[in-house]
Amino acid sequence: MSDNSEKKIELKIKSKLEQKKKKKTLDDGFKKNKVVNEVLDKITILQLYDLINSKIISYVNGVVKAGKESVVFWAKDPEENDIALKIYLVTTSNFKKRSQYLTGDPRFTSVKKGTKNIVYLWARKEFQNISKCYDCGIPVVKPRHVSKNILIMDFEGKDGKPENTLLESEIDENDYHQSIELISDLFKKAKLVHGDFSEYNIFKTKNGLKLFDLGSAVDRTHPNTMNFLKRDINNITNFFVKRGLTVENPADILERITK
Ligand SMILES: Nc1ncnc2c1ncn2[C@@H]1O[C@H](COP(=O)(O)OP(=O)(O)OP(=O)(O)O)[C@@H](O)[C@H]1O
Ligand SMILES: [Mg+2]
After folding, report:
1. Looking at 41, 213, 219, 232, which residue is catalytic?
2. Is 3 a catalytic residue?
3. Which sequence ranges form a coiled-coil region, renumbered to this chain (predicted)?
């Protein structure tokens, strides 16, 4: 998508949203463009009903974390297993930032225009990325299902409290090596680059590190692969340096992974 056409879509959506704001309450009780918790618009709520009817989820317990672009919920499946629902925001999505991770990836050549479609595509992309890693034996959260803007995975944590991320954990040398190995395995085995690899997107579990938040991950053939890979290595290196660990030169790691 060119910068110009992105601008056009953005303007169009802005004016659509303005128009919607002017409309009053609808007969069905849903105010147009009105959302609960910034995420539960009418389509998403109907989508949740569908997931319940199809026995993919049983009920939703509550919010785990509300971010700018998605809200993660703790839910249960019909067997009472904990599951996590990552619901991408349709109304306030910052798709401009996202499109750089879509255009150029051969898996997503036809990007349908319109915010909703881009958000659905983004959710599907994250699901595909996680599934690819999971199938390659890379430690990631276990993917379950995706439909529209809702991504469903196993819940990492207990009683609705998510597992600590690297940022929230005491760390050691081993975590550093595992992190670099994750980046290397992503590149070599899953042929992906995470694009947002950081202490915020890795759980530290009793069985080692577990990666999540793979919406930004791109195929290795993406034109920006090397920049994303370099940035991923630098970001995680900086984190371990800040925590006082001795680290390898990031340039050497980059060379080793890509050679
Ligand atoms: N499978 C899961 N199990 C338990 N908690 C989860 C799971 N996935 C995400 N979370 C919780 O939700 C938070 C946000 O998740 P995630 O990083 O995927 O979304 P995000 O950062 O909002 O995404 P983005 O980077 O696109 O804004 C995590 O820090 C974690 O606390
Ligand atoms: Mg995140």
Report:
1. 213
2. no
3. none
Cα 203–142–87 angle (5° rounding)? 85
Ligand 2 center from residue 200 Cα (angstroms):
6
Residue type, 48: L
Q: Is 82 a catalytic residue?
A: no
The tokens describing 206, both together, are 């009793």
Percentage of the chain with pLDDT > 70? 86
What are 80-139's pLDDT values in tens digits? 999 999 999 886 656 567 777 877 888 877 666 677 888 999 999 999 999 999 999 999
- The stretch 225-230 carries a mean pLDDT of 97
Ligand 1 center to residue 213 CA distance, Å? Answer: 6
Structural tokens at position 106: 């051969």
Q: Which of 37, 68, 72 to mutate to test the pocket of ligand 1 (most atoms within 8 A of CB)?
A: 72
Q: Which ligand is nearest to the CA of 126?
A: 1
Answer whether 213 contacts ligand 1 (Cβ < 6 A).
Answer: yes
Ligand 1 pocket test target in 37, 83, 86, 98 with most atoms within 8 Å of CB = 86
Residue nearest to atom 22 of ligand 1 (CA): 67
Of the given ranges (8-12, 54-58, 59-63, 201-205), which has the lowest mean pLDDT? 8-12
Ordered by start, the domain boundaries in the chain are 3-161, 173-258
Q: Is the CB of 141 under 6 A from ligand 1?
A: yes
Q: How far apart are CA 76 and CA 213, in angstroms?
A: 20
**CATH code, 3-161:** 3.30.200.20
57-90 residues labelled b (16+ CB within 10 A) or e (exposed): beebeeebeeeebbbbbbbebeeeebbbbbbbbb
